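Q: May I have one protein plus its fold?
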Amino acid sequence: MSSTLDALEAEVLKLPAAERSHLLDRLLASLEVDAEIQEAWALEAERRDTEVEEGKVKLVPGEEAIARLRAELR
């Protein structure tokens, strides 16, 4: 990383969490997003939400999911 980027990162990390979150939202919005990809992800999210609502899939708590993944990677 360049020294300018390092200095900027250090300054940003001094901000309160809410301000860092707002900055992150703005930075992400500034990135060009492929409309087809965005639409595909929206459809996938809707499909998964429907599966959960209809009871077709079982939700797993986040901690359990992470523990399973760690066990698989060992």
